[in-house]
């Protein structure tokens, strides 16, 4: 009772006279889960706040305010900037509202699910959102648990039920939960009051501590108390399976449930994630702000210096001699308004529109079926991924174990060839891996070949195609040999098959429709072995009242009485079941033990013979990626068990505290009496070796090839799984996360080595590969407890590990036994250390246990599959399978990043053209504040005149064609990664080009004004503005990589819009609506030889300058993208030529 003081939560549930149950105490936390960002009430203020956090939006708000101040305004006090700013804010707000509305709908669907809750003495339907702590709830088969529920009663007589925990730990196999003995035996709610004390809400999904007092139990006086553990708790998100119904009491709701405590939802909801390109663009915007500020200060200083000598003399400038200093301040703000166009107001709206359009187009791809882009603002980040963090179960694998090989008896008779994914991968020269891949194998050719194979596999005997599946048809090839040996009476094989059938936690369920027996288990290994035993004649028929029934070859039945189970945990690494065979022998007690070889072999009776070649056989199976199990069995008399049973029953019911704390999950101390008692029974059981098995968890279709393509593209890999290290390592090798088990450096904290020493081993491997580049890459592996300790250490130690991981010699980092909280912490550290050095962090998973890491990553990808939709709802991108990540990143990611980079460069370029000319004009006009270009043209040029062509490039342009991206992803993705297309250097190049082009346009205006005395400023400036417009249009054509009809139509429409706008402004001007009537701009500004030369030279000079620059760059050295384009085009020409030659040879051969 020493730890009971920490059980601070308390709820009391009492039966009222009308039969209903009333709860008092407990948390008032709502059971509504909110993954959306906004509500109806906070959308407008919160969205506006977020939008004005963007430097450009805030800047233009300031400009609009300045335009409203008459003394400094250049627009007569009219805030003309509010029109384009309002358009930007409205479009961005609509996009944000649309995306958040989808999340609201998902949350609403979850909240509206119906559950049976006790009210008025009976169970009535109630929405999930209305469930509260202390409420009695009845769950039906296949229902998802809506909150954390304490199990009181189960339909099964023994009080157990089965739940699928795939959304928590990534395993689709079933876990067993048990009701409290008193509440189970008493019947459904046959008591008066429950008093429950338990721990505060926490993120530990493997531990639950509490105490319950039950009052009014028939035959019991006073209060009956029971300690509570995880075995009694049904967690939110799990699914009830193979159980008709259960009854429980709610103890945690909503964000206080254990899975929600793991997801970091509250903290992450306050974090606004932006793509790497957006962050760089923000820094460039700040740089432009500073440059603009310096230009305004320079203009003010020059204006002050020339005030008395020049400006005061010209009355129309309204420059007062009485207060020159005050007028200087006014001129500063005037130039802030005049130079405002240097910061592009169309940047935000253009990028938002382009990203939204691209997000809409991705699901239209035939290979991206069931894909959904939930956060369109991050779509360009898919082209900048430097690290992929992946879950294992359900993400890389199919959650299905397959038996591949067995060795039985002292002579190790082999059944099955042991053909696995790894053995096939190593043997196949066509497999894409880094150790000698067949470089001529193109992704599209390989995909077509494998899809053809899949279609052949799914053909039935009639030649008709079955339902399409990408699952490999590979089956256990040792079955026929097993059946033959059974016919020959192989006793050793019979014993191990009986072991397969009964030594498990499987509960057979009879299908009422077909009468067949269905198996569900908490262990995929047990399920596969039991299914195999049934296939060869040893069928587990039922487990009832402790009696296990097995039908042998359909002709006889064996009934075994299960006496007890010595449970498996990660410390023991084995499970032992003890049966009474009732076979009439002197030793009817069978002790069946199975587990890891390093724990089973030492337990074998020294008097028995253990095959000397067993370690080599086990090592070979492990190298082929199989999960190995060793089976042993002992026989003892009933007296032997009677002498030990009472002591074991006492030990088995010890509370998990003190030395036994954490026994169920294997974290108990070496003095744990439960573990010691179980080991004593096993050592005294006289165990003899029966055999060993090798099982493989099948990988999803094209997972190894996809992983290999990622590594060849220079992307670092991290596997975060809740599974045990052995399984994680075998899957890592099979999926190309690691080359071999020997190439893995283990990071552990033990008596023999510390974490720092293990990191030094990784650094040594790093230095060895630097000295010998031919040496294969190594991987690092770290277990959950060690990783948890590492995360509490100083940043220097964590950064050492991450530095090793970032080195090219390190292929991947594999983390086993990682809880959801650890997964999220690892992703956070990866982002902080690697984002600027390597690239963005992409996290991909499929279960609720992956939600935290998905939200913490730069971009989260969720797979909607067997483990539910929690991960896909929380993710930025939802896909159907892991292999779609290849197309998502290498095709749509590259396209999106290139389009947004071009769009950003171009918008900054064209926005600076006008302010540069204005500043140059100020140099010759004493910075009087006179505008060079008409204000109305300046206001609308970014939003209307050049919007269509650049949007066409941003939505439809293709840097490379789809097939080129798929087949040469290793070259192209490296070339565009790490901000290669948009960075400080490229930004500076574009801005210098803008400065040059703007000065050229101004110089010709100035020349015209000087040489033609009758010319007025408006006419000359409109002609120069036309030259700028044509120049910008040509620049759009220059940056276009793929010309389509859409591009041509957009350019034509832009020209028409400009001409129509000029004509409308002419009509307005001559009508005198806003002042005196004047001549037509379209005639005065674009007529005459001088004006024509201004337009022609204003376009030709910048164009010739760029052509000369491109020629110099080509001779000096092409940029990587252009080099790769030439390489790809040459490779494709060579391939087509070889294909044509091969077709000619085949035709000639056929003719002969």
Describe the 3D structure.
The protein is α+β, with helices and mostly antiparallel strands and 1152 residues long. It has 6 domains: 9-29 and 133-269, Calcium-transporting ATPase, cytoplasmic transduction domain A, CATH 2.70.150.10; 40-114; 321-362 and 892-1103, Calcium-transporting ATPase, transmembrane domain; 372-396 and 700-879, Rossmann fold, CATH 3.40.50.1000; 401-429 and 476-649 and 673-695, Calcium-transporting ATPase, cytoplasmic domain N, CATH 3.40.1110; 1118-1151. The protein is 46% helix and 17% strand. It is built from 38 helices and 34 strands. The chain has a 9-stranded mixed beta sheet, sandwiched between helices. It has a 9-stranded antiparallel beta sheet with strand order 18-17-27-26-25-24-23-22-21. β29 (744-747), α22 and β30 form a beta-alpha-beta unit. α28 (884-924) packs antiparallel against α34 (1017-1039) and α34 (1017-1039) runs parallel beside α37 (1089-1116). Residues 265-270, 429-440, 457-474 and 1073-1085 have low confidence and may be disordered.
Secondary structure blueprint with pairings:
Layout: E1 9-15, E2 21-25, H1 43-52, H2 55-67, H3 82-111, E3 114-119, E4 122-127, E5 136-140, E6 148-154, E7 160-164, H4 166-169, E8 174-178, H5 181-186, E9 193-198, E10 210-215, E11 223-228, E12 233-234, E13 239-241, E14 245-252, H6 258-261, H7 265-269, H8 276-305, H9 324-338, H10 346-361, E15 372-373, E16 385-390, E17 397-408, E18 413-415, H11 421-427, H12 443-457, H13 479-487, H14 491-502, E19 509-510, E20 517-518, H15 524-535, E21 538-544, E22 547-552, E23 556-566, E24 574-580, E25 589-595, H16 597-600, H17 614-623, E26 627-636, H18 638-652, H19 673-683, E27 688-699, H20 703-712, E28 716-720, H21 725-734, E29 744-747, H22 755-771, E30 778-783, H23 784-791, H24 795-806, E31 810-816, H25 820-834, E32 840-845, H26 851-856, E33 859-863, H27 870-874, E34 877-879, H28 884-924, H29 935-945, H30 947-956, H31 962-967, H32 969-976, H33 984-1011, H34 1017-1039, H35 1045-1071, H36 1081-1084, H37 1089-1116, H38 1120-1151
GO molecular function, one term: ATPase-coupled intramembrane lipid transporter activity
Keywords: ATP-binding, Magnesium, Membrane, Metal-binding, Nucleotide-binding, Translocase, Transmembrane, Transmembrane helix
Cofactor: Mg(2+)
